[in-house]
Fold these 4 entries.
Entry 1:
Amino acid sequence: MIEDSETIEEFLAHGMSDVEEAVRKAAATEIMPRFRQLAAHEIDEKTGPHDLVTDADRKAEEYLTAVLGALLPGSVVVGEEAVHANPLTYEAIRGEAPVWIVDPVDGTRQFVHGNPGFATLVALALGGQVLASWTYAPALDLFATAIRGSGAALDGVPLRSGSPAPDRPLEVATSHPDFTTDDEKRALLALRTEGVRTRPCGSAGLEYLAVARGELDATGFSWEAAWDHAAGLLLVEEAGGAHLTRAGEPFRITGGNTLPFTAARDAATAQRVAGLLAGGA
């Protein structure tokens, strides 16, 4: 395990730009040519009308799966669309090999409707710990990266999330009620209190970026899919933020979390939001 970690550290010392290039190329060749150009036959429903997949999702994931696996021999790829086709693929996140966690188009609904608020998310993890992440919003021309222990950056400029201003309400983006259980709804409703302003979340990856940039104070999310959270959670951590589940524990990409959970600009805000979520259950 130590040798594996050293190998990944060596890879990250020279390979961050190679991954960034792969993410940019996937977007340039498979995603952006289809943005606002999708035909009806290129869009499908997965679990319902709010859970969409497009040819851009599929083609970008196929490209990234091939390139990322070649960049780091011995690694495996867990992509959203591959898991949809074969749920057992998800188990690799709990395995011993380095794993690339890929969401080819995070915010597919926005993408389908011509909204630029979507992103490609890639994270590299080992043993349940995220070691590096790449967040790319091609329609907004934003590229954020993070390396565990080395900080986060947006377009090469270091990111610091800071702390919320004490004289204004917390701004919190939350899961849509349609995607929550009754128990989770009660927990999220507890955020509708004095000193907190909530709104529905958009692309999870871009909400995490907003927290890391200090533009959003916290999130309140009710689902565990690692491709939505892995990249953003590391980005927030390395920008100075923190994340906690309703049980007061850091979120685990391997699952088994007490939901909902929050990612916030600083530890104090994470504790405050997690406490409200716990009180509402």
Entry 2:
Amino acid sequence: MSNLSELGEFLRVRRAALQPEDVGLLNYGIRRVPGLRREELAMLAGVSNTYYTRLEQGLSNNASEAVIDAIARALNLNTDERAHLFNLARPGTTKRRTLTKPDKVRPGTLRLIQSMSNTPAVVLGRRSEVLAWNRIGHRLVAGHLDFASPETPSVRPNMTKLLFLDRHTRELYTRWHEEATRAVSSLRLVAGRATDDPELASLVGELTMNSEEFANLWARHPVENCMSGLKYMHHPEVGDLELNFEVLTPPDESGHRILMYTADAGTPAAEALQLLTSNDTGVVSEAQHSPAK
């Protein structure tokens, strides 16, 4: 995933999504292709058409911060999309953490989610791989999988792969397309920060080859830092659930995220979560919870 080719594709997709009237231009004549023309976008950004064309063609990697900012404004990018554009256009400004060993959850993070016996929690790595989950988190999102599977990197579940390639996970989300768009938007953001990550490139390649729906969503370049919101589920044990989710990010460079689910007090979803907790009679020792070394 070359950052220059990713930059060019992102610019082309976002330019094609804009109509002249969206940016205050008059639309003259019939357009052979949808969206703004290159020269129109260049004019709005205050750069030469030749220079902007080189950016779209992946031939320039020295765009100044002022130019990137001007292009972001011309494309009407939101905060997350603007950050993504900067990551693609100036990858050298993003500090990356090179992983030489299989990733694993921090002991403190593991203790934290274990202490939340009534709150489903899942610890995700930077590529949406599951590093750990507590008992109710496991029962909520992947009860058909082995609880201990996150401990072994070779069989570790990946939430994005499950969403697109696993029938049970797909059936869990009553608004599947909304959930799929959210997942791809988050993965795009990660890809912009780590264009030289071979494991991420492998994940995207596998999903593109095996899911036409993923391939179509990926090609649209959605970008969003999904930190909170609602998830709509139909759980095989407790039925329909409308759950709030929050994502906590540890203040280190691991790229880990703690995904937590809650229900408003007094709602059917709160009762369903309580039922899911009370149905869990399994007892797992500290050693069983600990990640493989």
Entry 3:
Amino acid sequence: MRVVMFGYQTWGHRTLQALLDSEHDVVLVVTHPRSEHAYEKIWSDSVADLAEEHRVPVVIRNRPDDDELFERLKEADPDIIVANNWRTWIPPRIFDLPRHGTLNVHDSLLPKYAGFSPLIWALINGEPEVGVTAHMMNDELDAGDIVRQEAVPVAPTDTATDLFHKTVDLIAPVTIGALGLIAAGQTEFTKQDRSKASFFHKRSIEDSRIDWTWPAEDLQRLIRAQSEPYPSAFTFHKGKRLEVLAAEVSQGLYGGTPGRVFYREGDGVVIVAGADARTGRNPGLAITRVRTEDGRELGAAEYFTTMGGYLTSRP
């Protein structure tokens, strides 16, 4: 089939590479300009560079809503558009233009985690598995019929980076497998159960701020989700920003006020956590490694030389 690809960053790069390696003919690529946004500089393999290396025409757009692009698309005469990590709304006159419509590839197990940063949110929320879904695009974001979907388990120590590598490897089989079904003439696919749908916003630095009223289990997953190369989860100690690089749920139960620097446990220093910490029935968060405001990385026992005081959400 003749394919136009809309995509950005490493997700789009992997999708384009899969298409180039397939039997399909990539006739045009549309991608976003480079961004200096903290999250968009992560996994930033260039779709434009890859297309140019293979002499595929490239169009750069923030939004695909101008008449010039529409005319280029009509001239390309695609059988299908394939999109992955396209960050702005694609209007119906574009996604309905090809004979077979538009196939969107999304890194979650739809209908859950539509929208942005699905792997990070799924890890924070303790999902047992994540995956990639190829679905037909319609008027509602990430809501079209599912053509193909594959899942991978989330291990107890997985970080967001681990989940990225697990799911990015699913892009090629999910995308090319879905195109195979469409090329073979299949037109009926799996409807999404919209009662199970959830929609998440793009993460920002503010979302990495630690709230000590969260249960320790949730905080430990937040720290794994915000591990390198993502901006680290952070708190404040004595008015200065402190990044938490590694932590574990404590073995013991600790009571008191959330955020209290309380007790040495193994290699960690336990911080009281949970909205009901006053009951003494919660584990705490045993911080094991931190980064100070001036960039020093230290073991928690080296940083917290005395117990007492509080970690806070704000200076």
Entry 4:
Amino acid sequence: MLSLHGKIVAITGASGGIGEATARLLAQRGAAVVLSARRSERIDAIARDIREQGGRAATCVVDVTKAEDLRRLVSTAIDRFGRIDVLVNNAGIAPISPLADLDTEGWSAMIDVNLRGTLNGIAAALPAFREQGSGHLVSIVSVAGLTVSPSMAVYAATKNAVRTVHEGLRKESTDGVVRTTAISPGYIRTDLADSMADPHVREQTRKNMDAMGIPPAAVARAVAFAIEQPADVEIGEINVRPTVQA
């Protein structure tokens, strides 16, 4: 039977939503987790809850736009648990709006968090993976990149850029040392809409999430499935959406 026991997993954006659900599920299944986010009080509370339930958890305050913070996250995992087997790049924002609104600050923020944040994670984790002889990079992308909708052009572009980086890393890692998995959620009940600047887009997104959204645990199960596979199996991409989502 496949198992997560002994896996050491670091997760960005773990203060809520998909990141929190992933941390809780992986810990329940035997992995040691390192939760990271900007909100220290929230990840500390989640980690404490995991430990009280018999799991192993540590925390690290991280702003993914800062390369040194991701290096500290990797170091925390190694210092606390001896190695890092998986990095889950989950932190992301979506201040989406029509291109005609010219929200250049929002565009830059999405590039910094969604794309540069992932690259910072890769730069931090890859040397450790290579030194260990194994490692797994999991990134939460989006179905928004598969079918681009109005107001989501830049957001989709950042997610598709991450998808491209994953494929490039996969092609560079056919020696079997590093595995990559891109997971693309559809409507998931999270607070992602809070980062949307346009009030009309934000309200419509919340309505869609309420009407058809599925729990973050659905994505967490996909993460668990990908990382529990034996070393000779790589799950390249998974799409997780509500059955009622077009």
